[in-house]
């Protein structure tokens, strides 16, 4: 899961209501909050999380609707999910190791 914070700033003179519309049926993206009001010269922060269950290219779209504006803006959310694998290989040979024995540890 990757999470980013997106800031919205109201540079106008009136408060504005913002709705972020996305496919809520898709379980791989979450937007919090998806509706909020911004006062003049105020900044609102929105948390956008994207989760990939398999290695793949993931792309989702968020529509930004602002009351009083006819133009709908879009946020293109995309990521490439890759599989990670960690192996331990000793220089003296013996191949890959999946476990290490540290013996008894004292604290």
UniProtKB/TrEMBL annotation:
Name where it's found.
Answer: Cell projection, Cilium; Cytoplasm
InterPro entries listed in its UniProt record: HYDIN_VesB_CFA65-like_Ig, Ig-like_fold
What Gene3D superfamilies has UniProt attached to this entry? Immunoglobulins
Pfam families assigned to the protein according to its UniProt record, in alphabetical order:
HYDIN_VesB_CFA65-like_Ig
What are the record keywords, sorted?
Cell projection, Cilium, Cytoplasm
GO CC, alphabetical = cilium
Q: Can you tell which superkingdom this protein's organism belongs to?
A: Eukaryota
* Domain (HYDIN/VesB/CFA65-like Ig-like): residue spans on this chain: 3-79
Q: Which GO terms describe its biological process?
A: cilium assembly
Name of this chain's protein = HYDIN/VesB/CFA65-like Ig-like domain-containing protein
What is the organism lineage in this UniProt record? Eukaryota, Sar, Alveolata, Ciliophora, Intramacronucleata
């Amino acid at each position: 899961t990757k999470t980013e914070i997106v800031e919205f700033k109201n540079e106008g003179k009136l408060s504005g209501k913002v709705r972020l519309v996305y496919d809520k049926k898709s379980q791989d993206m979450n937007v919090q909050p998806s509706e909020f009001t911004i006062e003049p010269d105020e900044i609102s922060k929105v948390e956008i999380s994207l989760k990939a269950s398999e290695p793949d290219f993931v792309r989702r779209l968020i529509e930004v609707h602002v009351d009083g504006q006819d133009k709908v803006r879009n946020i293109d959310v995309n990521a490439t999910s890759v599989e990670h694998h960690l192996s331990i290989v000793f220089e003296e040979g013996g191949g890959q190791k999946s476990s290490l024995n540290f013996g008894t540890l004292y604290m």
